[in-house]
């Protein structure tokens, strides 16, 4: 019996250390799982926050879409009413908005040109200014009715009291084509007519 008691006493520290090891392992697993759970909860919070943000953005876009649809319907109805009421009279609001858009475009162009002007002043005119090329006017004489010969002021016929004669167009005289009186055809004379029935 004493041997059995010694064996039981020897096994007790092993069991205690094994239990302690198992206990430590369980505690580590519990800590790891609790960290994982905390990380997952943080991720769920973040996703729910972004979900709420996306929902609010979606609602804003939906609201803007409905407002634009309503404005479009109102403008369409307004255009229909104005075209039915006054076909020849333009709507003053449309005219004003059109003119305002033109003014805004011109102001923008003016601002761009002022900025370019300022840049050129700052550069000290180091960049050559490109001016649009204009063609030289062609000489024309109103008296002679000819281009590129001379100007009306330089016309030699200007001092004459009588109006200048109209220029004659030079034509080549046409060659006389042979004509047959008997068959009434061009290409041969009456004496050379192949048709002698006449």
Question: Could you name the key traits of this structure?
Answer:
2 helices, mainly alpha, 59% helix, 198 residues, two-stranded antiparallel ribbon
Account of the protein in words:
It is a single chain. With 198 residues, the protein is mainly alpha-helical. The chain is built from two helices and four strands, in the order ααββββ. The longest helix is centred in the N-terminal third of the chain and has 84 residues, at 2-85. The chain starts with a helix and ends in a 12-residue tail after the last strand.
Q: What pattern of helices and strands is seen along the backbone?
A: HHEEEE
Mean pLDDT: 78
Strand content: under 5%
Radius of gyration: 53 Å
Counting H and I runs of at least 4 residues, what is the number of helices?
Answer: 2
**Basic shape:** elongated
Helix share, percent: 55-70%
Structural class: mainly alpha
User: What strand line-up does the widest sheet have?
Assistant: 1-2
Largest sheet, described in full? 2 strands, antiparallel
**Strands, total number:** 4
- Given as residue ranges, the uncertain stretches (5+ residues, pLDDT < 50) are none
Distance between the termini: 172 Å
